[in-house]
């Protein structure tokens, strides 16, 4: 497409007298376009350094249509990006030769062909803008996206830890520390006997032949073991069986969730409320005051021993590797300990365990956001004060249930337990959404 450069009308003698004289040794020839050989109008500088009128450059760009030319009209060097108007050169030319620049602009604007070419040239530049060089100042970081990435990473890591525990733990550990004792099958009892040591090989077949399950195992006594069909004549062997059985019943929660709630109603309510609000403090209290009843089976379940760990006292003091894993999760991701514990109850309480695991992930997100905001604002010193304020608020709001539960009607206690288990996860989900996405982003259409 060729568009002729419009020619301005010839100047009269008076107009020639009014034409600008050279300033400080500068002449119009030094500010001419090498396409039209007239004074530059909206001078556009290419990457090679040559400058041309913008409408001349647009005409050159469109001269090979339907293709376009992106080479310099003078040296044929390709330009990169989209040429911009040289503001400094434009201002200088307009100050030196205002009358001629104005006349040329009016002639260009009155030509429909040049207007169409300039419009197409500008639209081409707008389409090329996303591929331009990035700005010097990077855009501000979206805190919501950062939080979302952190929460996603933590949740993914927690799921990997749970899957690792689920597939790496051996079957003997699953039987000894996870499955309720009352639900043990004959194979489970035989596996427990095998776990006691090599000396039990002579008795394994007898336990299997008699089809002894978990309920019958609990009822065994010294007379039962010495009489037929077991006929264990070695007194030390019978004593070891009974001691291990007593330790099994005393050092682990062999009841399922609902049985434990029915037997220890107040303790179950206390654990549901305190673990949700103060997981670290609650686990510390359990370690100090309920070590054998609750803390020991808890740490064995959520941080199981490795298969090559010593098996002389499998249900007693945890190994150093268990303590290391527990303390790491205790300080960084305490709620994931609850998720790991719920994972081992998946076969007994599937949907309840799933809800507990999801709630643990949500509480972990809130915990991370809380400490991140404190650190970002430089308010870590206020952490003890905030801790005590939250503790007093929780005590005042739940003291009627935790402290006075024996005199509170049973249906109210059960209702509160179900609320803690099944309703608060949805409330935590809403709170996570409000934390990650502030109010100013929630009212978007």
Automatic annotation (TrEMBL):
Pfam families: SAM_1, zf-RING_UBOX
Biased composition (Basic and acidic residues): 1-10
PROSITE patterns, per database record: SAM_DOMAIN, ZF_RING_1, ZF_RING_2
Domain named RING-type: residues: 33-76
SUPFAM superfamilies, alphabetized: RING/U-box (SSF57850), SAM/Pointed domain (SSF47769)
Bias (Acidic residues): 11-21
GO terms assigned for molecular function: ubiquitin protein ligase activity; zinc ion binding
InterPro entries: SAM, SAM/pointed_sf, Znf-RING_euk, Znf_RING, Znf_RING/FYVE/PHD, Znf_RING_CS
Keywords, ordered alphabetically: Membrane, Metal-binding, Transmembrane, Transmembrane helix, Zinc, Zinc-finger
Transmembrane annotation, as ranges: 146-167, 327-345, 351-374, 386-405, 411-432
A cellular-component GO term for this protein: nucleus
Single GO biological process annotation from the record: proteasome-mediated ubiquitin-dependent protein catabolic process
SAM domain mapped to chain residues: 184-251
Annotated segments matching region Disordered: 1-21
PANTHER family: BIFUNCTIONAL APOPTOSIS REGULATOR (PTHR15898:SF13)
Protein name in the entry: Bifunctional apoptosis regulator
Organism (species): Cirrhinus molitorella
């Amino acid at each position: 497409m060729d568009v002729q450069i419009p020619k301005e009308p010839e100047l009269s003698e008076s107009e020639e007298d009014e034409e600008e004289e050279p300033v400080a040794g500068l002449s119009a020839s030094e500010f001419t376009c090498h396409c039209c050989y007239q004074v530059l109008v909206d001078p556009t500088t290419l990457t090679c350094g040559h400058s041309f009128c913008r409408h001349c450059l647009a005409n050159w760009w469109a001269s090979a249509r339907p293709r376009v030319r992106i080479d310099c009209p003078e040296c044929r060097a390709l330009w990169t990006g989209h040429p911009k108007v040289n503001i400094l050169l434009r201002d200088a030319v307009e100050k030196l030769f205002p009358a001629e620049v104005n006349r040329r602009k009016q002639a260009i604007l009155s030509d429909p062909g040049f207007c169409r070419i300039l419009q197409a040239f500008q639209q081409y530049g707008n389409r090329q803008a996303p591929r331009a060089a990035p700005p010097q100042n990077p855009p501000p970081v979206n805190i919501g996206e950062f939080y979302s990435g952190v929460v996603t990473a933590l949740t993914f890591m927690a799921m990997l830890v749970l899957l690792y525990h689920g597939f790496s733990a051996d079957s003997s550990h699953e039987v000894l520390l996870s499955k309720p004792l009352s639900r043990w099958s004959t194979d489970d009892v035989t596996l427990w006997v095998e776990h006691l040591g090599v000396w039990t090989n002579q008795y394994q077949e007898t336990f299997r032949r008699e089809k002894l399950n978990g309920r019958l195992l609990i009822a065994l006594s010294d007379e039962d073991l010495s009489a037929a069909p077991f006929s264990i004549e070695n007194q030390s062997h019978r004593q070891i069986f009974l001691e291990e059985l007593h330790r099994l019943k005393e050092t682990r929660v062999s009841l399922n969730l609902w049985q434990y709630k029915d037997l220890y109603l107040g303790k179950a309510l206390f654990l549901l409320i305190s673990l949700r609000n103060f997981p670290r403090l609650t686990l510390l209290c359990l370690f100090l005051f309920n070590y054998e009843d609750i803390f020991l089976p808890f740490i064995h379940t959520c941080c199981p021993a490795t298969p090559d760990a010593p098996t002389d006292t499998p249900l007693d003091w945890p190994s150093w590797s268990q303590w290391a894993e527990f303390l790491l999760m205790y300080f960084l991701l305490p709620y994931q300990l609850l998720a790991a514990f719920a994972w081992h109850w998946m076969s007994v309480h599937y949907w309840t365990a799933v809800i507990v695991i999801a709630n643990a992930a949500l509480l972990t997100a809130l915990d991370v956001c809380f400490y991140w905001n404190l650190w970002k604002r430089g308010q870590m010193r206020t952490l003890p004060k905030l801790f005590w304020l939250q503790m007093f608020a929780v005590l005042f709001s739940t003291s009627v249930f935790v402290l006075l539960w024996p005199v509170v009607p049973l249906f109210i206690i059960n209702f509160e337990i179900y609320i803690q288990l099944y309703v608060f996860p949805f409330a935590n989900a809403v709170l996570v959404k409000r934390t990650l996405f502030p109010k100013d982003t929630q009212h978007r259409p």
